Amino acid sequence: MIVLAAKRLVAMLLIMLVVSFILFSLFEADKMAVAGKVLGPYSSVEQRELWLSQNGYDAPFLTRYAAWMGKAVTGNFGDSLQYKVPVSELLVDRLQNTGILTLVFFIILIPVSLTLGVLAGMKEGSFQDRAISVVSVLTTSIPEFATATFLTGLFVYTWHLLPGTSSMTNGFSWKELILPVMVLVIYDFGYVTRMTRASMAEVMTSQYIRTAILKGLPYKRVIMRHALRNALIAPFTVIVLQLNWLLSGLVVVEVFFAYKGFGTLLLDAALFGDIYVIEACVMVAVFIAVFSQFISDIGYTLLNPRIRFS
């Protein structure tokens, strides 16, 4: 187990290293373009060359990359060109806001999707199964912006129950989280539900479940003590990997509802050309993606004895 974790960790670090090199090459290989972004489009060539000399851009490319990587490891990505503050401070604040949104999302998503998936998989082919499957496919087929538009028209303009934006201008408000969380849950719960349903249906047709039922064990006990544990192995992996999808889904939802999180920060940086913020956001996004894969692999190994002892 320790060896497996070590291998996964080394692979994760290698991926981060490769991505960081590609990222640095894309954004900082052209030194004059970097100076132009920092000093503005109307700066002279002399001003750009002076700035490059003062900030260590006269060094060889690999030397600059090593220095940049050393600062990135400590969280130093420079100052934002748009907000004129350290990127690390800006990033921490936005990640905290996105973390709150993500936490509430998972608190609702996990019990809802697992419960519906188990109910559907218990009776494969029944009306219960077909109804849950239809709802799951329907909600997953509708993109986030369409769901957000529909819910805003319903809860904001028709019923006047919820605010239309989640900018938190008057301080933190749980009420402003409702619509963004609803959009994320409605779009994603169908996928997790379908995966749980498929896993549960497969477990219910296995020999040990049939043997337990033929022995006369109570059906509820068969489900709770035998089927459920094995059926939840695959959904666990899927739920952890939802962090990757959230990186793209959050951009749409946060921008739509003006929520000051990681997604809006990344989009604003891309539109403004804030290269230091873009670099930091990409590195964080890649870290979350590879770390979620790492957690998924280790968790799957712990939950599945056939892998653990093989």
Question: How would you summarize this macromolecular structure in one to three sentences?
Answer:
Its main location: membrane. Helix content is 78%, strand content 0%.
Description:
This protein has 310 residues and is mainly α. The chain folds into 2 domains: 2-73, no CATH class; 87-308, Orthogonal Bundle (MetI-like fold), CATH 1.10.3720. It has helices at residues 2-28, 31-39, 45-54, 61-73, 87-122, 127-141, 144-158, 178-204, 207-214, 219-231, 233-256, 262-272, 275-303, 305-308. The termini are close together.
Primary descriptors:
310 residues; MetI-like fold; 2 domains; 14 helices; transmembrane; mainly alpha
Low-confidence stretches: none
* N-to-C series of helices and strands: HHHHHHHHHHHHHH
What structural category characterises the helix and strand content?
A: mainly alpha
Shape descriptor reads flat
End-to-end gap: 11 Å
CATH secondary-structure class of the largest domain: Mainly Alpha
How many discrete structural domains? Answer: 2
Query: Rg, please?
Result: 24 Å
Approximately how much beta-strand content do the residues carry?
A: under 5%
CATH topology of the largest domain: MetI-like fold
Find the CATH superfamily of the largest domain: MetI-like
Total strands: 0
What is the percent of helical residues? over 70%
* CATH architectural grouping of the largest domain: Orthogonal Bundle
Biggest sheet statistics? none
Mean pLDDT across residues:
89
Q: Count up the helices.
A: 14
